[in-house]
Amino acid sequence: MARASKTAAGSKRKPGRIIVRYEPVRLAPSVRLTFTLGTLVLFLAVAIVACDRDKETVAKAQTQPSLPADVPLPKLSLPADVGPVPKFDSARAMKYVKEIVAFGPRPIGGANHKKVEDYITSHLKGDQVEDDAFTADTTEGKFPVRNIIAKFPGNKEGIIVVASHYDTNYPLRNTSYVGANDGASSSALLLELANQLRGKKLDGYSVWLVWDDAEEAMKEWSDTDSLYGIRHLAQKWQDDGTLKKVKAFLLADMIGDADLNIDRDLNSTPWLEAVVYDAATRLGNQSHFFGRENQVSDDHLPFMQRGIPSADLIDFNYGYNNVFWHTPQDTVDKLSPKSLEIIGTTILESIAILDKMDSLPPK
Ligand SMILES: [Zn+2]
User: For residues 326 and 182, is the Cβ–Cβ distance under 8 A?
Assistant: First the structure.
């Protein structure tokens, strides 16, 4: 993943610039009397320099982009009883993260990528699985791309999609970069969600899990160099009529961080984020959600652009100032099974709420 707007309100709650202020020097009268002219000149020179530096620091701080006001979540009247507390095996999910990471870097077109494709499908034996495989014409040439979709049918008309990308950053392909949080954590999350959905007659919407491919930019993130897999899938579903049945699109990205703080994404659908927040609150997970606003370009955008209510669940502050993002430091030791459980159960609870709502609002 992904990109956050530079003017995002998310920076609001990041630690501010430290402004050094210089306190005036106070001297006792006896000391003042012993001041020589030279000392006075030196003192004034230092004071003037200090004053200028103070002004300069403040001026720099004032050139930071202005911060938008908080955008409150809409208040919804949601069903009270949505059934039992959802289950999620966090230890098993964490094991999946480690197994995916163990393949090494998984950029599109590589041998490791193929291994991860096989790894995902090997966990979906007996499920209704569909491929959306095609050749993407990227900035770095033509590459095979494969979205993997597992369908768990419900008894209510309509589909809720839960998605995660599984490729790793292409420009870092020749480093030790394994994307433990960025790609592996959410892909493992979906495998464990599949375990929870499997073999049940879902009393609600069908749930389709999508491991989408080629999310990462090949060179530099732009509308055309990113999201290759999900853009193809959204267009395909628009062309074949599937899209009309999609009631909501929930995206998980970078959700394994042990210090979990999911952004309130201003590119997502507010009412759907309100449902997610309500689900998190019912489970006691709300302190991990929406303490920071951001505006994120991610796999939900092609669905948002087609009018599908969408929410990106992403913690785009991975290490201080997002320092581990897209670096070889994105490793398993920064993650926590608890974070996977918080997101997994909150997604399942969100689906339970959506299932019980009379009708879902438009985007
Ligand atoms: Zn990424």
Answer: yes
